[in-house]
Specification:
The structure is a single chain. The chain has a single domain, classed as Alpha-Beta Barrel (TIM Barrel), CATH 3.20.20. Helix content is about 35%, strand content about 15%. Strands 1-2-3-4-5-6-7-8 form an eight-stranded parallel barrel, surrounded by five helices. The protein starts with 8 loop residues before the first strand and ends with a helix.
Length: about 240
């Protein structure tokens, strides 16, 4: 965790304006704004980005991902991402979510540097492309070189974060006192969140399907599920 960080951060996926407004209303600390939730998240429209930024006061991080084929991007993909980042920066008051890999399973550092340069002072989450690198500890050291990158969203290289709890705990230990934090996500549940936090020591969690009606990613946010998560996290403040 970041040095001095003692409270729990709850990041919530929003795919619509109503999602974003409800997320703020029910206690989200931050929004990840995406489209294509079933594909793991794609870049949302400029209209949606503007409406969300105008409608909520909590931080918003916007997905920059041009397609769901893979996390390998050719030069045209990177150019598309650069233009999307320019538009997001122009809107103002936002941060971004992105990630890119080389074909050999390492971080595509050349493309990362280019897009960070375009992003200028925007904060960045490196998304779950991190779960497909060949060596997560090596990748963590690379990402730590870039102060703009404040979060790494990960399930610990497993299909869900609870299955990756041991790895997430190790990654969390490696970030202690640094400017980068582990953001645990994928497969977290209301029922299991307290035990997961105790296992891993994470202070940032990311929720999508679990706080929606019937646990369905394509359904609206369920206020009761959402409030249950928020209450459980609030009970852990200062742990």
């Amino acid at each position: 965790m970041n040095e001095g960080e003692t409270t729990m951060l709850l990041e919530v996926i929003a795919t619509t304006l109503s999602d974003a407004v409800l997320a703020e209303q029910y206690g989200a600390d931050r929004i990840e704004l995406i489209t294509g939730i079933s594909e793991g998240g794609l870049t949302p429209s400029l209209g949606l980005i503007e409406k969300v930024r105008d409608s909520v006061s909590i931080p918003v991080r916007v997905m920059v991902r041009p397609h769901a084929r893979s996390f390998y991007y050719d030069k045209d993909d990177i150019e598309t991402m650069a233009r999307d980042i320019q538009h997001i920066a122009y809107i103002g008051g936002l941060a971004i979510v992105m990630g890119m890999l080389g074909q050999e399973g390492s971080i595509d550092e050349e493309s990362l540097q280019r897009l960070l340069h375009v992003a200028k002072d925007l904060e960045v989450t490196f998304h779950r492309a991190f779960d497909e690198v060949r060596d997560q500890f090596e990748a963590l050291e690379i990402l730590t070189r870039y102060p703009q990158i404040t979060d790494i969203l990960t399930s610990g290289a497993q299909t869900t974060a609870p299955r990756g709890a041991e790895r997430i705990a190790a990654l969390e230990q490696r970030t202690s006192g640094r400017t980068i934090s582990i953001l645990a996500g994928s497969g977290l549940t209301v029922e299991g969140i307290s035990n997961f936090i105790q296992q891993t020591g994470v202070h940032r969690v990311h929720f999508g399907s679990a706080i929606r009606e019937d646990g369905d990613a394509l359904k609206p946010i369920d206020p009761l599920r959402f409030q249950a998560v928020r209450n459980l996290l609030d009970q852990r403040k200062g742990d």
